[in-house]
């Protein structure tokens, strides 16, 4: 990317300064443009060759190896650490909070580092060794139960505790897709996006689940991912068992599912009461009037 910018700017600089081979009048424009490109092209090729020769004389051998060693490796180490995992889920959740489909964007940046870890875990598994890396793409797949924000936990809380008709209908509508990690019905229908009440647990739950799962895997209580690739639509619990190759992967997902539901529940109850008040305004108005009359009687008494 840097090379493309430098070479393009260098080429246009020569053209703007008119440092080109000038042809006599009457030469066809296509021929003039071909000759005009010769000097900038020669300079750019000479610069590229100088860079190639310079790095060939170093221990890095190529500029690509230099960038990988000096930049990519430290970024990979931080990006696949616990703090990197926290920043990753916070970035995805916070961008989704304002309606930006951030999963594809963030994943596209970090996937090369995850793939390196995944390949090393897969090689270790084939060799009969313990996979060395906790944070892989499958690690996040175990967290995003129901989709970004681990909203399957929210659906579970809605299924058991919701009383308003709106949330009950949303539960029936979104339960099927949430099992396969598709949560747009919940995000836009409940809604979660741009909802100050639900955005708090939506951003908090992934951080808590990453912490629990990272500690469990790093301590050896739960098996780390083996590097096997699975479709992101595979339902939770099944996916945890397959990517870890162990029952503990399924159990940690069940545990996280319940923890997430407990965190979502207080906020869901607030929203549920609001919807109930909107659905039965006369009833709530009557309750308020009755309370006011009782208060007056007590005061008069």
Brief write-up:
By secondary structure, this protein is an all-alpha fold.
What would you say this structure looks like, in words?
Helix 1 runs antiparallel to helix 3 (38-56), helix 8 (151-161) crosses helix 13 (247-279) and helix 11 packs antiparallel against helix 13 (247-279). 74% of the residues lie in helices and 0% in strands. It has 301 residues and is mainly alpha-helical.
Notable features of this structure?
301 residues
**SS content category:** mainly alpha
Helix content: over 70%
Give the uncertain stretches in residue-range form.
none
Number of strand segments: 0
Note the beta-strand portion. under 5%
Mean pLDDT: 86
Largest sheet: none
Oligomeric state: single chain
Radius of gyration: 29 Å
Terminal CA distance reads 81 Å
Number of helices: 14
Shape: elongated
User: What order do the helices and strands follow?
Assistant: HHHHHHHHHHHHHH
Write the layout of secondary structure elements.
Elements: H1 2-16, H2 29-36, H3 38-56, H4 63-79, H5 82-97, H6 102-126, H7 137-143, H8 151-161, H9 165-179, H10 184-189, H11 196-218, H12 238-244, H13 247-279, H14 281-300
Helix pairs in contact: 1-3, 5-11, 8-9, 8-13, 11-13, 12-13
